[in-house]
Design brief:
With 357 residues, the protein is mainly alpha-helical. Helix content is 56%, strand content 4%. The protein contains 17 helices and 4 strands. Bound molecules: iron/sulfur cluster.
Length: 357
């Protein structure tokens, strides 16, 4: 099948023969090389997928994938009971990528990449370890099974875990045997999730021509409106007298990461939320600032913020001291003021900087 649209990049998958994979497996892991090969050999041409009634369900499911990503930062399970449904599910991945490419909005792309990768992570939890290792190989994760665990060379580990900021992922906190980092199957699946997220973010948007834009016109316009509304809902409001210029480097860094949509560890979010609250922001303002995070979930974030700021728990938590920040690896970009002997707390920094100004 030849067409003008580029299908998802097929990665090398030396250890697996695609004909051994059932259609249901291909639909579950549509980014695999085998799934791409299957569509090339058996699937519709792009113009058929775009226009024919027979593929209407694939287009609808594709839009649903994007909508779920936008609303919940996750993609839900759909009906896989028949071969037709499995094929439609597989094709819906293509349709979703086309829609995201047509909308061409980095907020949506990040959100979609996160949702697809989260879904794969959850699915991998139910697979056999050998299969998980093989999926890892698709992303270049060179790993081997070792009894119940999976091991990978520490240099590879460093490369693939760099996007995960939680303290427990730091190399010093890992079990290492003769240069190999030992991971549970779940942890290894988390590394694959990160790789898939990065891969989708780097691939999208794909180039789309007028014909494609036209065929998906109404879907694209609906998703565009939803994306805009979602972004507008959480536009940072004015911060009044609060001056970000006076924030210590650690907090500026964490805030920047949140707003760039990078993953911020639990301890980082806690420190930032308590700090923002201490300098006078209310829960709504904090929520606004966090809304551009790639995994932003309004309901969950609101609950966490309201808990930390005391609205739900009745306890107003205070920001951690510099020493604790260091322990968690979130004392970042220390400057001259940070190096003063008396500097023990990010709030001290904020007040000192304010006086100086
Ligand atoms: S020394 Fe304190 S205020 Fe400065 S960056 Fe580190 S944690 Fe933040």
């Amino acid at each position: 099948m030849e067409h003008g649209f580029k299908f998802p990049i097929g990665l090398k998958y030396e250890n697996y023969i695609y004909c051994l994979m059932s259609l249901s497996m291909l639909a579950s892991y549509p980014f695999l090389h085998e799934a791409v090969e299957y569509i090339k050999k058996n699937g519709p041409a792009l113009d058929e997928l775009m226009n024919e009634k027979a593929y209407g369900r694939a287009r609808t499911l594709g839009k649903m994938r994007v909508k779920e990503a936008l609303e919940y930062a996750e993609i839900r399970e759909h009906d896989f009971s028949t071969e037709t449904n499995q094929l439609m599910e597989l094709l819906s991945y293509i349709a979703a990528r086309i829609i995201v490419s047509c909308v061409n909005d980095s907020f949506l792309t990040r959100r979609y990449a996160l949702a697809e990768s989260k879904r794969m992570y959850l699915r991998l939890q139910n697979e056999k370890p050998d299969f998980v290792v093989m999926v890892g190989k698709e992303f270049g994760l060179d790993a081997e099974r070792e009894e119940e665990n999976i091991k990978m060379h520490f240099t590879d580990y460093l490369r693939y875990s760099s996007g995960i900021k939680n303290i427990e992922w730091k190399l010093v906190n890992r079990k290492i045997k003769k240069g190999y980092v030992v991971l549970t199957e779940k942890e290894f699946a988390r590394l694959i999730q990160e790789s898939l997220r990065k891969m989708i973010e780097s691939e999208l948007p794909l180039p789309v021509n007028d014909e494609i834009l036209n065929a998906f016109k109404s879907d694209v316009s609906e998703i565009k409106n939803m994306t805009d509304a979602r972004k507008k809902m959480f536009m940072p409001k004015k911060l009044g007298k609060i001056s970000i210029m006076n924030f210590p480097p650690c907090m500026r860094h964490l805030l920047g990461m949140m707003q760039e949509g990078e993953n911020v560890s639990h301890s980082g979010r806690f420190a930032l939320t308590t700090f923002l609250h201490a300098v006078g922001m209310d829960a709504e303002q904090i929520l606004s600032l966090f809304s551009s995070a790639s995994d932003f979930d309004e309901h969950k974030s609101r609950y966490q913020i309201e808990h930390i700021t005391g609205k739900i728990s009745g306890t107003e938590y205070t920001p951690p001291e510099c020493a604790t920040m260091r322990t968690y690896g979130i004392c970042i970009n220390e400057d001259e003021l940070c190096r003063k002997e008396w500097m023990t707390h990010p709030l001290k920094y904020y007040r000192a900087k304010g006086k100086k100004r």
